Amino acid sequence: MVLLIGVLISERASRTILSTAVLFLLAGFVLGEGVLDVVPIASGDPIVGTLAELALFSVLFTDGMKVGWQDLRSAWRLPGRALLLGLPLTLLVTAVLAHYVAGLPWLESFLLGAVLAPTDPVFASAIVGRKEVPGKLRHLLNVESGVNDGLALPIVLVLLAVAGGTETEGWALAGEILLGIVVGVVVPLVVITLDRLPFLKAESKLQPLLTVSIGLLVLAICSATHANLFLGAFSAGITVASRGPEYRREFEQFGELVTELLKLAAILVFGALITPDFLFQEIPLLGWVFAVLAIVAARPAALLVSFIGANLPGKQRLAAMWFGPKGFASVVYGLLVLESGIVQADYVFHLVGLVIVLSILAHSSTDVVIARQFDDEDARQPTT
């Protein structure tokens, strides 16, 4: 029923402050244990981790296909600033806020900063999807969000290992990360090479399933070899986009629909975990102050520094600084922290959950309003 309502209002949502993401989040909250108890889900239930894992794998796979090497080479300066300078600065500012405002120890503060550093433009789809928004800004947000999930993941894994939250440490952890990248590169190369042999060729109507088979094969091999499946997914997406752009085009619509379905389902489940007690009793006042500052101060301050000397108009600069919505990567990384059992795991997860809730509400309700501020002259500016 929630999916049906979301689809029926999606066209209007694309033109107003309505948001399907907010709809699923609120539906999960109302249907969860804290209100109607229709969907009795707890954080330790297997379905939570499995659904979040599949959703993030799908997100990273499709995100990787948006940022092939050719895309990065065509206009890399602004995304490069946001990724190589903005991402570490966002992590650092968030960690400082977590330590001095929320009261977390330094290690857990940096872990929280790494969890909250990635962005997800799906919650600000009017910005990246509207033609009146300048192409330079859309390209910046698309590339940044497509890459920063994968860049933040190794940092989260290393910090979790240092905090004692994983059984894999040191060289074994590095091996899992490296093996995931290798699997993500080798599998697509082999499959694409096979498909291009003269005696092997996928039927045109089944061509999108070839890319699906690549994703499933990467998932299976990573699971069997204990390679990091998220980095495997991200590497596989980039490899497909770089080695066979035609596969990306054929997979695009089907892949986006599957990913969107998994993401909305994950939001629903995540909303069911957010109870009234979760928000108003288990998070102190300083936790709320931290959550607000993490949204309105951390990323804007980081990108303000990153864009010094950049060729980006002021209006677009402000939009990029504001639109850093927290999404599925942060949800899944937060669940990884919760399941790790480290000393501050519960408090860190509560702060992650609160920031994501506030981010979804704030960014999904302001994307259309800000998108309308750009006129046709801005939209015709080049993307390079």
Automatic annotation (TrEMBL):
Record flagged with keyword Transmembrane helix? yes
Q: Name one GO molecular function term.
A: antiporter activity
Name the domain of life this protein comes from.
Bacteria
Keywords of the record:
Antiport, Cell membrane, Ion transport, Membrane, Transmembrane, Transmembrane helix, Transport
The GO cellular component terms are: plasma membrane
Residue ranges constituting the Cation/H+ exchanger transmembrane domain according to the UniProt record = 3-363
What membrane topology was assigned to this protein in its record?
Multi-pass membrane protein
Q: Which Pfam families match?
A: Na_H_Exchanger (PF00999)
State whether keyword Cell inner membrane applies: no
Concerning InterPro entries, the annotation shows: Cation/H_exchanger_TM, Na+/solute_symporter_sf
Q: Name one GO biological process term.
A: proton transmembrane transport
Q: Where are the transmembrane segments?
A: 42-61, 82-102, 146-164, 171-194, 214-240, 261-279, 285-307, 319-336, 348-370
Main subcellular location of this protein, as a coarse class: membrane
Annotated signal sequence is none
> By what name is this protein known?
Sodium:proton antiporter
Could you tell me which species this protein originates from?
Arthrobacter echini
Taxonomic path: Bacteria, Bacillati, Actinomycetota, Actinomycetes, Micrococcales
